[in-house]
Write a structure and sequence with these properties.
By secondary structure, the protein is α+β, with helices and mostly antiparallel strands. It folds into 3 domains: 99 residues, Chitinase A, domain 3 (Roll); 45 residues, Thrombin, subunit H (Beta Barrel), CATH 2.40.10; 62 residues, GMP Synthetase, Chain A, domain 3 (2-Layer Sandwich), CATH 3.30.300. It has 7 helices and 12 strands. Strands 1, 2, 3, 4 and 9 form a 5-stranded antiparallel β-sheet that branches. It has a 4-stranded antiparallel β-sheet with strand order 5-8-7-6. It is globular, with a radius of gyration of 22 Å. The termini are far apart.
Length: 229
């Protein structure tokens, strides 16, 4: 039975993104498509997201409203609604020594990570390197082929999907009326507090932290020995 999707719904989705002009696949969570494109992806699983909360490209996110579960779709997005237009000011000249300090020999066409961004080397000569800091897909129209598998109703699954997206890991938690209480090591309490807003906005719950003090080293070693016996 199909269900119509609305803003704030949690959905499980399978997708493949490709460049419109070349059909080059740049992202997917479908194993067969990843193997076809020779993408190095370690884990394949449907993506769970909250519709209307910028967990996808803004054009793609908006496109999901009004769609139905168990249906396949294909949607095209302009650069403005995908990865943005190319910005000439993001093409910069960088001294070659900056790369040498990182033991990198830059060559034209090379893509690498700098300051948390994927950049492309345009040229390298005379001790200077021309680097493009634009997203590699900036200025390109893209197409997403996708299927909405199901709507998510279970609150625990919703919380864990947000943990995957925002934390990239899962912490223990408990629901106490309108409170979402994360149980974390005291060293991580500030991190949870800093990341609380999207959980509160999307779920309508107040995020709180229950600090768990780390066990002394001797106690950890004792438990480890007990497990090996």
């Amino acid at each position: 039975m199909t269900e119509k999707i609305s803003k704030n719904d949690f959905i499980e989705i399978e997708f493949t993104g490709r460049v419109k002009d070349t059909d080059e696949i740049f992202d997917t969570n479908i194993k067969e498509d990843a193997e076809k494109a020779e993408l190095k992806i370690k884990e394949f699983k449907p993506f769970i997201l909250a519709v209307g909360h910028n967990m996808l490209l803004k054009g793609f996110d908006k496109e999901l409203e009004g769609r139905e579960t168990e249906q396949k779709y294909s949607s095209e997005f302009s650069p403005e609604n995908a990865f943005g237009k190319r910005n000439p000011s993001l093409v910069k000249m960088i001294p070659l020594k900056v790369f040498h300090e990182q033991k990198i020999m830059p060559q034209a066409g090379m893509q690498l990570s700098m300051d948390g961004m994927v950049v492309k080397i345009l040229s390298s000569s005379g001790g200077r390197v021309l680097v493009d800091f634009n997203n590699p897909l900036a200025g390109k129209s893209v197409v997403y082929d996708y299927k909405i598998n199901r709507k998510i109703e279970d609150i625990n699954e919703k919380i864990n999907s947000l943990q995957d997206f925002f934390f990239r890991k899962k912490f223990d938690f408990a629901l106490k009326e309108k409170d979402l209480v994360f149980k974390v090591d005291e060293k991580l309490s500030k991190f949870i507090e800093l990341m609380a807003k999207p959980f509160e906005d999307i779920l309508g719950l107040k995020v709180k932290v229950e600090e768990i003090k780390e066990a002394p080293k001797e106690e950890k070693e004792k438990k480890k020995e007990e497990k090996t016996e």
